[in-house]
Amino acid sequence: MAWNEPGNKGNDPWGNKGGNDKGPPDLDEVFRNLSKRFGGKGNGPAGQGFSALSLTVVLGIILVVWGLSGFYTVKEAERGVALRFGKHVGEVTPGLQWKATFIDQVYPVDVQSVRSIPASGSMLTSDENVVKVELDVQYRVIDPYLFLFSAVDANSSLREATDSALRYVVGHNKMDDILTTGRDAIRRDTWKEIERILEPYKLGLTIVDVNFLPARPPEEVKDAFDDAISAQEDEQRFIREAEAYAREIEPKARGEVQRMAQQASAYKQREVLEAQGKVARFEKLLPEYQMAPEVTRKRLYLDAMQQVLTDTNKVVIDAKNNGNLMYLPLDKLMNNKSAQPEPMTQTEQHINSSSVSGTRTSVPLSGRPTRDERARQGRE
């Protein structure tokens, strides 16, 4: 039974007992009681219960509390996004700032730190092999307002874009390239694909770097792929060693070629000059030969014999006296040509006197004979 139905003698919400309905409490009485608490006299209507001073004090306290609550600090690495009744009004710089509480809202965003989002998974390559790849995307916020309000969650959007770009790039490359030499190309292609996907969303961030971690084949075939990678590394090492050997040998070969070319050029010039000298010499001999052919011919013969016999050992034999052999070591005599002559002994004078009679002949062509030769002649 409701409290206000006839016959209900229970308590009503206003505190009436025994069914004595007095109605709701008087508002004037309520305001009068409040005015007593704040120092009012409590006489007269409720609007006259508050004094002007009390009202001013209360409003001043509220205003001071409201003003102090508006101070806040933006860190050096952050930028604040200011909203007024939910509308973007600008960007807040670092330092001590003030905002109107309940009117303005400021959301600080770190714009200097480099953040990272990992991505990994088992993916199918273009040659229908499964490979496990891992990627780490590093980015920085460049527009705080777009980063906060262009998407529900910018980090989640970037993570999904990274996963989509990675699967697209891996699906268009072969497993050997992913595991060995093609990692850098895959890294660059993934970077470009992420930027292409994020461009229409305008998330207010920029990609700083993309780290493509070493991919791994399935565990079942890991040993075989390790051998393949080792063989390719050996191939690259041999190529580098061959290139180093080529860089070492090539300068030597070029120097050898240059030296041989210079020697050939010098030999050519020498032969040409010698030929020209011989021609000039014969041209000068021609008039003399025309005037005295016999004398010139004999002179040429003697010059040629002198040139031929210069470096040979010579034995001179007296053809008139049979059985008498005269040996003249002309090579030694020529070597001792510059030596001082010694005085002749009596034996030497006797030998020379006997040579006049035709028994023996000693003709010192260049200076006197040496002491050994004189001794040998004395024994003879």
From TrEMBL:
Region (Disordered): 1-26, 336-380
Domain Band span(s) in chain numbering: 69-229
Subcellular location: Membrane
Statement: the UniProt record of this protein carries the keyword Protease: yes
Keyword Ribosomal protein: no
Biased composition, class Polar residues, residue ranges: 336-364
InterPro entries, A to Z: Band_7, Band_7/SPFH_dom_sf, HflK, Membrane_HflK_N, Stomatin_HflK_fam
Single GO biological process annotation from the record: proteolysis
Record membrane topology: Single-pass membrane protein
Domain of life, source organism: Bacteria
Compositionally biased region (Basic and acidic residues): 369-380
Keywords: Hydrolase, Membrane, Protease, Transmembrane, Transmembrane helix
Pfam families recorded: Band_7, HflK_N
GO molecular-function terms, A-Z: peptidase activity
GO terms for cellular component: membrane
Transmembrane segments: 50-74
Subunit and interaction comment: HflC and HflK may interact to form a multimeric complex.
Protein family membership: Belongs to the band 7/mec-2 family. HflK subfamily.
Reported function: HflC and HflK could encode or regulate a protease.
Protein name (database record): Protein HflK
Organism (species): Shewanella salipaludis
Lineage, opening ranks: Bacteria, Pseudomonadati, Pseudomonadota, Gammaproteobacteria, Alteromonadales
